[in-house]
Structure formats: structure tokens, C-alpha cells
Amino acid sequence: MLDSTLYALSDATRRSILGRLAQKEYSVNEIAEPYDMSLAAVSKHLKVLEKADLITKRKEGRSYKCCMNYTPLKEVESLIKEYKQFWESRFDELEHFLSDNEPDS
Length: 105
Fold this sequence. Notes:
Elements: H1 2-9, H2 12-21, E1 26-27, H3 28-32, H4 39-51, E2 55-60, E3 63-68, H5 71-100
Antiparallel strand pairs: 1-3, 2-3
Helix pairs in contact: 1-4, 2-4
């Protein structure tokens, strides 16, 4: 699931869609409005987001409403925290090494 989440987040248009859906629920047509692309192209982006479980769609009348699902982002956050801890510890080690091996002035 993490791979599909990261793939979905790799595209600027999909990140923009998620940013809008983080504010409120929108219909597919409302989501498509600000983008200079066809409704079919926006629908393809929504399918990627839905496959990654980042959005949920529900039928309302003749249209579909989309809303954000934050659960997959928790897994991404966890991965980023692991990398952050790893690199912070490496930089701390480097800092100690450099300070211990400074040439005498």
C-alpha cells in the first residue's frame, strides 16, 4: 500500500487535488474545474488516488462526491520519521567526529 500511496503523491496534480479535498468534499466536476485538462484526465488522477485509498467516492444523485482519507498518509509519515531519525543520528555522529578531529590552531 505504501508504494501506491507514494506513487499517487508523486504527481503535482494529484497533490493539488488532495490539497483541495483536505478542505472539504467536492464532486468530480468541481474537482476538475480549476485544471486545464479534460474531465477524463482528472478522472484518471482520481482513480490513482482512489486505488491508493487516499480518497473515497460516493454516489450522490447523478454525480460522485470525493473526500480525503488520511489513513495512508500516516504510513508515509512513519516512513519519513524513520528516515529523519536515521539521518539526524548520522549527522550527529559526523558533527562529533568533526569536532573531535579539529586541527589545533
